[in-house]
Amino acid sequence: MRVWPRSLFGRLLGIATLTTIAALAFAAVTIGNVLERFVTRGLDQQLDAQVNVLARAVRPDGTLDQARAISLPAFEEQGSGWGWRVDGLAGHWASGAAIVTTLEPLPPRPPHGRNDGRARELRPHPGEGRDARGERVHFRQLALPTKSGPVLLTAAGPRRVAVAPLREAMVPLLLSLALLGGALAVATVLQLRFGLRPLRRLRNELAEVRAGRLRHIPIEQPAEIAPLATELNALIDQNEAGLAHARRHVSNLAHGLKTPLAALSVKLAEVGRDPDGSLGEMVTQIDQRVCHHLGRARAAAPGSNRRTRTPLAPAVADLTSALQRIHAEWPISVVMEIADIAVAVDSQDLDEMVGNLLDNASRYARSAIRITAHAVIGTVELAIDDDGPGLSEAAMGEALVPGRRLDERGGGHGFGLSIAQELAELNGGSLVLSRSPQGGLRATMTLPVAV
């Protein structure tokens, strides 16, 4: 079971929530203790006043002068829970509520002539107990030394005198802390959303780079993210350098392979070298396979070509013009309806993909080819229709298999459509074959749009 969420926002929010709750709980306990001591101090002052009156009423022999042992106003009210007691060897006296307490042992009397601890002994000490009705009382006790022995003076008051004001004060206190907690929660969420906004912006900028709308991530970033942006830009440059090196290597390899193949074709064309033409056919197939795999290697190179921007209409127009010259013996009309859009594909890859599709359409069209292209939610759909015989559903799947020829007529080798499909997929697109409204075959290629 995962305790912490995956997102930074969730983790920081969780930590802030826990710390805020702990801080508010600590504040509530601390403030409650302070309020309790403040309220209890007022109760202690009333009890200490009664203890002092009783202390002045105790005679030197340990007896109580009842004429001087008056009760303060709070102690005179019947049933109020206030009361006092005087306990000594000479007797016991009480007034008000009956106090049931566990009397603390009296401190030892200081030796004769030593008076350094008297001030401490004559200070009342607090305590807790219950009266005869079982209600909690708070009392103050004073051990008063006399000639006949120590006398214990006790004055008690109901605990509710301190608890009731404390409860009344805690209600608005807890409400205030709850409102403070809510305000802190809102402030924390706003702080996290504002603080993590640069990360979201960095993610969007990186997506713009991948889509080809930006070449580098802007370096105007917060101090904590600026090194990351710098490293990402360095990685982008490194991938571009690797792609350029791969393209040079592919070009050199293509030249190194095609030159011997061309020389071999020339030799085989001599009289008697290839009587049935089978060797020449194999050389041509090797040449097509080399072009096929080199095209895949170029498109799949690190960094890909998604940061390039190639206008679609001029590229298709140039290919159409070239094919019309190649197939000049076939009177085929070409209709183009292409919006002013560009694709995030390298121009060489685009020429190879569209060129293969147009060449295939030109071979089988009877009289017309229609080329349309429009943008659809971040992509470009390029459709090429012909009015040829078309293909069945089963044959459409076979047509995309590399090296599979459905028609043995002509000079093709069955790689055109598969090359176009693989290049489209490597560039983040797709190729789908379907029935054309003109009666022939429709090849629909989807490519990423470039801004």
Automatic annotation (TrEMBL):
Per the record, what is one GO cellular component?
plasma membrane
Q: What is its EC number?
A: 2.7.13.3
Q: What class of enzyme is it?
A: transferase
Entry GO MF terms: protein histidine kinase activity
| Catalytic reaction(s) noted | ATP + protein L-histidine = ADP + protein N-phospho-L-histidine
- PROSITE patterns attached here? HAMP (PS50885), HIS_KIN (PS50109)
Instruction: Cite the Histidine kinase domain residue spans from the record.
Output: 252-451
TM region(s), chain numbering: 169-192
Q: Which GO terms describe its biological process?
A: phosphorelay signal transduction system
Q: Which SMART domains match?
A: HATPase_c
The main place the protein resides is membrane
Q: Record's superkingdom? A: Bacteria
The protein here is known as histidine kinase
Q: Give the species this sequence originates from.
A: Sphingomonas oligophenolica
List the taxonomic lineage: Bacteria, Pseudomonadati, Pseudomonadota, Alphaproteobacteria, Sphingomonadales
